[in-house]
């Protein structure tokens, strides 16, 4: 009986100690909630078919000037960045429905677009250029495009220039700039009208069967697009852009992708 009593007593002691341990563990967990980074989220989008501004590299990763730019701005302003790839002609609808907070996608600031969205301060100066096959000596510029078939990316200022240069029925629209350029390479289009830096980068990547002709058209400025009702986002984007220009980060990103100092 003494042995049994001692065994029971020992068991009760162990049980009591276990309950105390559980109680202590519960209090300790209550003092250590899941960590919170405290960062606000910035949902940004781009059409990742527009090298060198935004595209997919050989490993499937989204890269480009605009992605580095918006990442630097987000870091500067204390945002956690989330990126989405959306077709260019779907960007403004996505902004208007607040599906995204901003778009850094080589979008030219125009009066028409400014009615639908707000734009940041300009961050890049560009213009349109005509691209033709290397052996084509008939097309020397935009004035030679009347009646010609022109491939473009839908919703771009290049598409607007093409519609002015030839019969609209002769304009072939694609969701991506790379598709338009491939249409030219395949011989199904006489020319492409596209942003100069995109065309220059395309040739630099080994596409020597096409060339640039004529002068750069329609001096343009790119801005980061923001929904009309997200005024704080716009203010933060502008503040972040200003800071990275002042601290040299913007120049670093620019030289990485274009191999030269930023143009004033």
Automatic annotation (TrEMBL):
InterPro entries recorded: Iontro_rcpt_C (IPR001320), SBP_3_CS (IPR018313), Solute-binding_3/MltF_N (IPR001638)
Residues in Solute-binding protein family 3/N-terminal domain copies: 41-261
Gene3D superfamilies: Periplasmic binding protein-like II
SUPFAM superfamilies reported in the protein's UniProt record: Periplasmic binding protein-like II
One cellular component (GO) term of this entry: membrane
Pfam families: SBP_bac_3
GO MF terms, alphabetically ordered: ligand-gated monoatomic ion channel activity
Protein name: Amino acid ABC transporter substrate-binding protein, PAAT family
């Amino acid at each position: 009986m003494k042995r049994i009593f001692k065994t029971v007593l020992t068991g009760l002691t162990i049980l009591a100690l276990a309950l105390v341990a559980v109680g202590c563990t519960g209090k300790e967990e209550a003092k250590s909630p899941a960590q919170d980074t405290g960062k606000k989220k910035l949902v940004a989008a781009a059409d990742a078919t527009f090298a060198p501004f935004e595209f997919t590299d050989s490993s499937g990763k989204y890269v480009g000037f605009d992605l580095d730019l918006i990442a630097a701005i987000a870091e500067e302003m204390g945002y956690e960045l989330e990126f989405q790839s959306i077709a260019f002609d779907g960007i403004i609808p996505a902004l208007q429905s607040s599906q995204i907070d901003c778009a850094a996608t080589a979008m030219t600031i125009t009066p028409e677009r400014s009615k639908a969205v707000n734009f940041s301060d300009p961050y890049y100066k560009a213009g349109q250029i005509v691209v033709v096959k290397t052996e084509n000596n008939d097309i020397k510029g935009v004035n030679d495009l009347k009646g010609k078939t022109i491939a473009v990316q839908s919703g771009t200022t290049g598409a607007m220039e093409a519609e002015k240069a030839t019969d609209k029925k002769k304009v072939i629209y694609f969701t991506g700039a790379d598709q338009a350029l491939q249409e030219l390479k395949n011989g199904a289009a006489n020319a492409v009208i596209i942003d100069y830096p995109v065309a220059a980068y395309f040739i630099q990547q080994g596409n020597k069967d096409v060339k640039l002709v004529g002068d750069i058209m329609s001096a343009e400025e790119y801005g980061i697009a923001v929904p009309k009702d997200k005024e704080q986002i716009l203010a933060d984007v502008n503040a972040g852009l200003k800071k990275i220009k002042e601290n040299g980060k913007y120049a670093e990103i620019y030289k990485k992708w274009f191999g030269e100092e930023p143009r004033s």
